Amino acid sequence: MMRRLLPRPGLSVALFLLWAVLTNAASFATLLLGALLALLLPFIVSPFWPDALRVSRPGVAVKFAARIGWDMLLANWAVARRVVGPVAKLHPAFVEVPLDLRDPFAATVLGSIVSLTPGTVSIDVDRERWVLQVHALDAPDPEMLVQQIKQHYEQPIKEIFRC
Q: Which of 28-32, 35-39, 83-87 is the least confident region?
């Protein structure tokens, strides 16, 4: 019964909280509109949204989120130092990361995390070859970048979603 009313409860909660933060208003009418949108939007997008994998290791997911936050902080600092420094010292590169993941949703999560980390942008998830294509602002050793992405991000995603 609950799934029929809230097909994606996490999405509904996230939408409501995002609405409350973005509108910065605590009036009843504004919060009611946010609640209505949070309840209706999952129904509207459900035909276009494939079933996501279920988080099977929430503790690992929390640690992983903390790692991503820390990595983003460190990457921001590193990118700022490199951008302010001599541009000639940068080693931009396109890198292909072979994926062990075979689930499109998990691969998309990985690509999104790589894009959130300053200095790297995921370009494509090639589902024929299962390769994540990444552009790095500074990758003097592309193989080291590949190993870092696989160990720091892909491995925990495989563990969190058991895929």
A: 83-87
